[in-house]
Specification:
The complex is a heterodimer of chains A (384) and B (96).
Chain A (H helix, E strand, L loop, with lengths): L22 H10 L4 E7 L2 E6 L5 H11 L12 E5 L8 E4 L3 H10 L5 E5 L7 H7 L4 H11 L1 H4 L4 E5 L8 H8 L2 E5 L6 H6 L15 H5 L2 H22 L9 H29 L8 H24 L5 H20 L10 H32 L6
Parallel strand pairs in A: 4-5, 6-7
Antiparallel strand pairs in A: 1-2, 3-5
Helix pairs in contact in A: 5-7, 10-11, 11-12, 11-13, 12-13, 13-14
Chain B lengths: L10 E2 L9 H5 L5 E4 L2 E4 L10 H4 L6 E2 L7 H10 L16
The chains are: A mainly alpha (384), B alpha+beta (96).
Chain lengths: 384, 96
């Protein structure tokens, strides 16, 4: 673990790079191939690739794609040391994850400054999530500090670690194991310039995680893409089941009951995945499952007012009861799953709410489904 | 926005505190504050059990069962019979 750097081998994490020349040189060259790098900075222990601090259209497009879940798990930066500007021995060292969006926001915030960025291998996961799993952690910091030859590059012994990395990092252990003192930087990289200018001091508001409208809105596309995988098959199942009836299978049933069922499932999902995050602070209750159920009840109410009268004499009480149970169950489940993306829910709290919510969701969904199926047969199905 | 009150596992032994203020620095929800050169638990209900404070307390004055407050992770843990774990690093899903 404490292998010293030198022209030894590249066995320190970056196995994807071939050996050749000194380990540092070859790794630097590998990292320099990225389109957002701009030459190298010479140091006493070798060349360090320089990252451009300006983000290009291509970088921004990449962020959009990542938010949409397109290859977001491969949105990585090769781990190791990078330069921004013309850093020297006195320049600050900032630690980052190798999720490209984390790295991009950091180098963007350092625009016009001279600094070192030490990128940890977090398997392409952002700082906070990786810290929770320990991949952004003490071991990896110590490994990268040694592997990069940082002791020979900077004269100070200070690492600026993003505050959200703290769940994985033990500052006193880092100091004990590699001599570098961890200074926790602000939560948001946009506050870094102010933090650095203030002599590495962060006022309390820089240390607070927010979950405002903007923070929630950017998560909606991911919610939609991730949820669609599960919801589309369910909607398709309702579409096909709609053809069932006392008189056998009918296409007319698919076109009416089936189509309506599929549409309601999709509608409830969209409602939960979009309005859930958007309206989170205003939905009643603290448990996310309760917030989601409330959203579903509003949807049911809206349908009762609009669609029920429109259905006229063909309206079925069984159908109404079925959807009255299934829609809130679905929205409750969708919003409950948003706990993972939120920034303030505890594991104990999530387990507490799931203890009552999951059985309730299952009961409502199962009873609702039974009523819906019963209606297909007892209700006589569509008058074909 | 606040989550459920009175549920978290956070425990703090003020007698052990050496006043380093690390817990105040790392907490993203202002659960700790400094008073008379000692850390004080000022907002236990805001704790999200991320574990940063305990991990950075050299005096081991803080204890918390750290974990992710993620329903999908809890469900995945139930399904596989393991601890709640988010699928971030392995396959897909989770974690904005």
């Amino acid at each position: 673990m404490t292998a010293r750097v030198g022209p030894a081998c590249c066995g320190q994490g970056d196995e994807s790079r071939p050996c050749g020349g000194t380990a540092l040189e070859s790794r630097a060259q590998g990292r320099s191939e990225a389109p957002w790098t701009d030459g190298v900075v010479r140091t006493p222990v070798g060349a360090v690739p320089r990252a451009r601090s300006a983000r290009t259209v291509r970088d921004r497009l990449g962020s959009v794609k990542a938010r949409l879940g397109l290859g977001r798990m491969n949105y990585r930066v090769a781990p190791g040391l990078y330069a921004v500007g013309e850093p020297g021995p006195q320049s600050p060292v900032l630690v980052s994850a190798n999720y490209k969006m984390s790295f991009d926001s950091l180098r963007g915030a350092l625009s016009g400054r001279d600094a070192w960025i030490l990128v940890l291998d977090t398997h392409g996961i952002n700082v906070w999530c990786a810290a929770g799993k320990g991949t952004f952690g003490t071991d990896e910091i110590v490994r990268r500090v040694h592997g990069s030859g940082l002791e020979g590059i900077v004269s100070h012994r200070k690492l600026v670690v993003p505050q959200l990395g703290a769940p994985g990092v033990s500052a006193h252990q880092v100091r004990g194991r590699c001599g570098f003192r961890v200074v926790y930087g602000p939560v948001r990289s946009e506050d870094l310039p102010a933090f650095l200018d203030a002599g590495m001091k962060a006022p309390p508001e820089m240390r607070r995680v927010r979950f405002g409208w903007r923070e929630r809105a950017v998560l909606i596309p991911t919610e939609l893409v991730m949820g669609a995988k599960y919801v589309l098959p369910v909607a398709a199942a309702f579409l096909l089941l709609g053809g069932l009836g006392a008189g056998g299978y009918s296409l007319a049933g698919v076109r009416t009951t089936g189509l309506a069922g599929g549409a309601l499932v999709l509608g409830a999902f969209l409602c939960g995945a979009i309005l859930g995050p958007a309206l989170l602070p205003w939905l009643p209750g603290r448990a996310f499952a309760v917030k989601g159920a409330a959203l579903g009840l509003v949807l049911v109410g809206a349908l009762a007012v609009r669609a029920w009268p429109a259905a006229g004499p063909s309206a079925s009480w069984l159908q109404a009861a079925a959807w009255g149970l299934m829609l809130p169950a679905l929205t409750s489940f969708v919003v409950m799953n948003f706990t993972g993306a939120s920034t303030y829910t505890s594991l104990s709290g999530v387990m507490r709410e799931m203890r009552f919510a999951v059985p309730a969701q299952i009961a409502a969904a199962v009873i609702g489904l039974a009523l819906w199926l019963a209606d297909l047969f007892i209700g006589g199905g569509p008058a074909a | 926005m606040r989550y459920l009150e009175g549920v978290v596992t956070l425990q703090y032994d003020a007698a052990r505190c050496n006043g380093c203020a690390m817990c105040v620095d790392v907490c993203p929800h202002g659960v700790f504050a400094m008073e008379n050169k000692r850390a004080v638990l000022v907002d236990r209900g805001a704790c999200m059990e991320c574990g940063a404070c305990a991990k950075n307390c050299e005096q081991e004055a803080i204890r918390v069962r750290a974990g992710v407050g993620c329903a999908a992770a809890v469900l995945a843990g139930m399904a596989t019979g393991t601890e709640p774990t988010c699928g971030c690093s392995s396959s897909s899903s989770c974690c904005g």
